[in-house]
Design brief:
The chain has 548 residues and is α+β, with helices and mostly antiparallel strands. The protein has 14 helices and 21 strands. Helix 8 runs antiparallel to helix 9.
Length: 548
Amino acid sequence: MRSKYQGRALAGALALTLALAACGGGGGEGAEGTDDTDTTDQGDNGDQATGGGGDIIFGTTDTVVTLDPAKAYDFASSNILQNVGETLVGFPPGETEPAPLLAEDWEVSDDGLTYTFTIREGVTFSNGHELTSEDVKFSLDRVVDMAHPAGAASMLFVIDSVETPDERTAVVNLSQPNSTFLARLAYTVATIVPSDGSYPAPSNAIEEEDAEEAETAAEEFVQEELIGTGPYTVAEFREGESITLEANPNYWGDAPANDRVMIRFFQTSSQMKLALESGEIDVAHRDFSPDEQADLEGNDDIQVIAGEGGRTRYIVLNPFHDEVSDPDVRRAIAAAMDRERISEDVFNGKVEPIYSMIPPGYPESQPYFQEYDDMEPSDFIDETVSFSLHYGGERYGPTEPSLVQVIERMLEESGLFEVELVSTDWAQFTTEAWPGEDGQYPVFMLGWNPDYIDPDTYVEQFYWSEGFVGSMYNDPEMDELVLAEQAELDADARTDIFDQIQQKAAEDVVNIPLFQEVPYVFARPEISGLEDTMDETLIMRYWLVSKN
């Protein structure tokens, strides 16, 4: 099935939206390839949900891009999918191992190639269709066959086939063992949708080699009316303004702690801050400036809740671009980075410096980039290098201009770099950053919200040649290492491979990890339940939040 993704490198310009993947992160090992009959549910299959607890209004500077699981790969869209749709397995609040959700339990063959799921009974979609194994097959096949360039279909590359021997059994066959497979199934790309004709799907796999043609072909099958089995239904979606979710009266699990949730999308963090302080909204998250955050922390009428994990930020260096194609130039840029200075000057010390794309919350993390702290750019180059550093405006919050200015100063203070800062509208940024007909950026800024709880989520997309950043790297030795860690079922042996990956990454420097943000949420005093959802998955579980 790998052949379905051979065109993803050509689709790199479209795939930049992967940079805001929806969930995951933290410190837990991936699922091992052994029989697993854990029956710890995310919700009770008891009384049906009726809702309760009033209405709650959230504010964010993010915006929802799509409601189709086959296309969604941004934080805001995926977060809605986590609340309206469901997957076979999921991560319960505070947990780092996949647990049953739409699958009551599962078994894994000794060779790690076959996963047999028992489908939960008594579950209906919001349109009344009853869940069966055929919906599982339809949903997974649809994502893989569409292979939408803006979506996360590559996460399911290891699926070879899906069989449905009966209504309650779905058998997923893999092309090779993959220690991350269960964790991947918890991400929204594996959201189960009805097979009753509500969602269109191609009859055969779309295998267009041209990026624009692949997107055009996939767009024909995109469905923006989200039909799920989760605790909410979508009541109203005003693109760029708000989305309203209502408690699903036919939900199979526990009722949400509220009747209705509205998520308002703000153009600026200052507008969102005023709305929170005035009581116009109940909760605000993503993203305030450090000064705004400090002001809210000093407000006795505002709760401040810090979470775990968090978005990582990094610099991408394009090895295909003449300005930074020399590995020594990229190493010199790495040697100029002062992460503590970034933390203090831009974020008032509220971010954590990182020295690997795998953040320090994982035991597999090895800070090989820290070696550059003891080096100078002059250790690698002796002539001035000029390049442009691109960023997507305030896509990552109001601190972005300050961040790139500090990076520019650090580079130019060495006397070996001349840097041009270029701010680009995000839509233009996503089509021009990657090598292709529309152009390419030599150096640019990105951020990453991990997809699932496993160190692989910080490796595959950045170092594998079919990953969205890895498509620029395209290194056969690294490809072999990435596929080896995924196929390795022994935890110690897998850790050794991660060590090799991180060491090679620090030598080749196709991206430079900078820092990890601490996720914060701010709320009015009458709001409760937020502490229960601020875990390593970064999922905002609206159903746990109530208003007293």
